[in-house]
Design brief:
This protein has 102 residues and is an alpha+beta fold. The chain is built from 3 helices and 5 strands. It has a 3-stranded antiparallel β-sheet. The protein has a two-stranded antiparallel ribbon with strand order 1-2.
Length: 102
């Protein structure tokens, strides 16, 4: 038999992949503009983005700015930053941080 029986049916594989992404989701991120703690994170679809394991975003209620957080390789982060800059017409702030501790 093929790998399907070993790895489970499609629904099981999708559930495992979503659980893996949710496990990477931080409790909060820090707003790139005003440094407020943002807790209303949205999980972004990233399964077809090369080099990105997970992506999340939140809009700051204090300064009305979006902040994204990626678990990804350096090249993937640069590509996403360029894409966001092209769409928004601005220059994004890129930073590196460890996952905040609970």
């Amino acid at each position: 038999m093929g790998q399907t029986n070993i790895k489970g049916n499609r629904a099981t594989r999708v559930a495992k992949a979503l659980a893996k992404i949710e496990a990477l989701k931080p409790d909060h991120i820090v707003c790139k503009n005003c440094q407020a703690h943002l807790t209303d994170l949205v999980t972004l679809e990233s399964h077809q983005m090369e080099g990105i394991e997970a992506a999340f975003a939140a809009r700051c209620k204090l300064c009305d700015q979006d902040t994204w957080v990626l678990k990804a390789g350096t090249n993937a982060v640069a590509d996403v930053s360029t894409a966001i800059d092209n769409v928004t017409g601005g220059v994004g702030k890129i930073g590196v941080t460890n996952k905040p501790k609970s």
